[in-house]
Amino acid sequence: MRARELHSGWTARPAGGPTPAALLDRLGPDAAVAAPVPGVVHQALLGAGLIPDPYLDDNESALAWIGLVDWQYAVRVVPTPEELAADRLELAFDGLDTVASVLLDGEVLAEVANQHRRYRLDVTGRIREGGSELVVAFRSPVRYANAQSLALGPRPRPYPMPFEAIRKSACSFGWDWGIATSTSGVWRPVRLEAWSTARLAEVRVVAAAVEDGGVVTADIEVARAADAALAVELEVAGAVASVELAAGETTARLRVELDAVERWWPIGYGAQPLSDVVVRLRADGEPLDRATRRVGFRTLRWDTDPDADGRPFQLIVNEQPVWVKGVNWIPDDALFPRVDRARYERRLRQAASAGVNLVRVWGGGMYEDDAFYDLADELGLLTWQDFLFACSAYPEEEPLRTEVEAEARDNVSRIAHHASLALLNGNNENLWGHEDWGWKTRLDGASWGELYYYELLPSVVAELASHVPYTPGSPFSPDLASHPNDESTGSTHLWEQWNRQGWESYREHSPRFVAEFGWQGPPAWATLTRSLSDDPLTPESPGMLVHQKALEGNQKLSDGLLPHYRVPRDMETWHWAMQLNQANAVTAALDHFRASAPRTSGAVVWQLNDCWPVTSWAAIDGDGREKPLYFALANAFAPRVITIQPRRGADGTGAFVAVLGNDTGDGWEGELVLERRDYAGAELAASRMPVVVPARGSVTVPIPDAVAAPGDAASELLVARVGAVRGLWFLAEPRDSALPPPRFEVAAASVDGALEVTVTAETLLRDTTLLVDKLDHDATVDSGLVTLLPGEAHTFRVRGAGDADAHAVADPRVLRTGNQLVS
């Protein structure tokens, strides 16, 4: 097997549709521009300086014509003598976006219509010795989707574009956090592969932990150019198994047993040892082809057996229940090929550093590149992969049904060996939508995707990856008689808080597992001001509204803030208030959900990341900067936490409880101190008791009325602490409190390449946070949302802040507190 990348020399040209005349004039007679491959046409046009950055201002609208145009990619392919001498010569496309004809010297090799599939085209004897012209002629995705919507019939969906009528990433047509790019291009690698006799067509590897040992099985399919006898070999950890394939045979199963293996664990539960698996194909002792996979040995299941409270959705790894600390993942760039391994690593390491142990790949995006799952294996980040159906009814008719099966088979085979893969999920919110969103009436008997979620996809998973758990959707009730979003059974999405109720109402819910919930906030100030040129910049200036995609998003921001803080009138303070409220909302929810363990077995925050600069639910913005929400995740997902919750103890006493959560493998013992203090720091009442919190467990302690009952709620708070771990509860909302103007001292020193900033509180400081991007656009900080009582200090580690000093850090635009929003 000889594989050669075909990534250089490509051009792209418009081939039909509303290309602006001015652009055609600049392109010249050939109307062609050099095109990066892998890439999409936006990248080609940007690289040539022919279009403005679509992420700035309202350039999205100015560039909408790109999705209405047919684009032609072309490259000259000159074969080597060795390639021409091979038995077979094939073009291997790892991804084409999306509807295209593939032509060689004008002859159609294939018609394709699925962004989420790989394609292999036989060009044996078709490529000329002196070279041939390879063309991929893409049809406008917008016009194709509209035409298919007419052909298949309309289906309910949340946005105007009929993304359900085309097997293309739904969010490429825009979402309530996403830009509409409607891309076209050769978006994943393409190769010319030459081989003789036979090659490995498919390799599916499964690693299983069995007692102290492990078993690796490999299901092999070979493609043949000759009926020669073949040998297939499987090697892992020095153990080898082999099998002979007689002439004409094309499938084999191999098995290796290992007496002792180290278990793979999620982050926070143990190590992540990985083993290389090698599969070799030979004929007459000569090597023909090889494939490698990395595997980890572990057991994994989701417990959904009925209990006294309904049906749980409890993840169990190596027979250890895991409290899921999750985030939802969307494509990290709206121009997908710009996300490389380094970008994946930065983002996933950010997730791991925030205490995350599971990343859910949402169903309106894509099946991510192999590098994503490789890194998740290495970092111990469990992955939950949605099949690509989101928030819409999907036609089950052809040609979509065949395409859905093909993409499912392709991607399940590609990713199922990963130790990190914890779940394959049929769709996002479609079961819920069918029940509650008026679909039944609007469908009027038309198909909506039920066949995919309950028949086709589970059958593919059972055939190709029976070791991977499958659920039909999210939210989903394992008790099929229950509503899909019934919080007493299975997974739940909570969106009424953001849409209508306010974040304080999270505490009214006790779901078994929360797969989506979240709150909006603007991106970092540096990101915002880089992407918008509004003058003046205001919450509702033109660019701000372009970069706010949620329905009535700004109004919901204000409505959600007002119970807690007043809406500021100057832009920078508004920006801080909305970022802080986003962080406080998610903190309240996560603290409540974690305090509800083990009934609640996990929470997956919407969302980790953004794909462009936008006001959204993300913790990391479109430029990769961490918002205050990021520190809310880190604080709530810490290994050991104490939260104070407004609920009575089991004996009916107390208006508040302290909940101690211990997500470590060791027991936690100490003295629990319960206090009521005033804002000056004085102790008003206190209670002390010994506590023992078991490993991976929690303890709930009622706070005595004598401690909890306030004398002056506006100026008092509750404190619960064991050693350095503590939780706080303010007895009045900030806007109704006596929160004083912030006073503090700042000291800064350079230590090991970082700026160590120590903030010492002279007054109570609520949610102290450094907006370090205002010091330098590349600056980062290690912590945030730190509340300090008078006399307390906290040291922040800041990197990349240039020559910033204590005076620069103390700038009230940089050193932010909740106090500033009250006083």
From TrEMBL:
Q: Which residues form the Glycoside hydrolase family 2 immunoglobulin-like beta-sandwich domain?
A: 204-298
SUPFAM superfamilies hit by this protein: (Trans)glycosidases, beta-Galactosidase/glucuronidase domain, Galactose-binding domain-like
**Residue ranges constituting the Beta-mannosidase-like galactose-binding domain according to the UniProt record:** 32-188
- What InterPro entries would the database entry show? Beta-gal/glucu_dom_sf, Beta-mannosidase-like_N2, Beta-mannosidase_GH2, Galactose-bd-like_sf, GH, Ig-like_fold, Ig-like_GH2
Q: Tell me the Pfam families matching this sequence.
A: Glyco_hydro_2, Glyco_hydro_2_N2
EC number(s) recorded for this UniProt protein: 3.2.1.25
GO MF term list: hydrolase activity
What is this enzyme's catalytic activity, as reactions? Hydrolysis of terminal, non-reducing beta-D-mannose residues in beta-D-mannosides
Where are the bilayer-spanning segments?
none
Q: Which UniProt keywords apply?
A: Glycosidase, Hydrolase
Indicate the enzyme's highest-level EC class. Answer: hydrolase
Q: Which family does it belong to?
A: Belongs to the glycosyl hydrolase 2 family.
**What's the name of the protein?**
beta-mannosidase
Species source reads Protaetiibacter mangrovi
Which lineage is the organism of this entry classified under, starting from the top rank?
Bacteria, Bacillati, Actinomycetota, Actinomycetes, Micrococcales
